[in-house]
Amino acid sequence: MPSSPEPIEAVSQRLDTFVSEQISYASTLGAEAERMAQAGAASLRGGKRLRARFLLTGCRAVERGSGPVPPAIEAAAIGVAAALEVFQAAALVHDDLIDNSDTRRGHPAAHRALESAHRASGWVGDAEAFGRSGAVLLGDLLVAWSDDLLEESLEEIPTAAATRRQYALMRRDVTIGQFLDVAEESAFAVHDDGTHAERALRVASYKSARYSIQKPLQIGAALAGADAAQLDALGRFGHDIGMAFQLRDDVLGVFGDAAVTGKPSGDDLREGKRTVLVAYAREALSADRRSALDAMLGDRTLDAEHIRDLQRTIVDTGALARTEELIAAYERQADRALEGAALSAGAVAELRALARAATQRTS
Question: How many angstroms from the chain centroid is the CA of residue 276?
Answer without folding.
Answer: 18
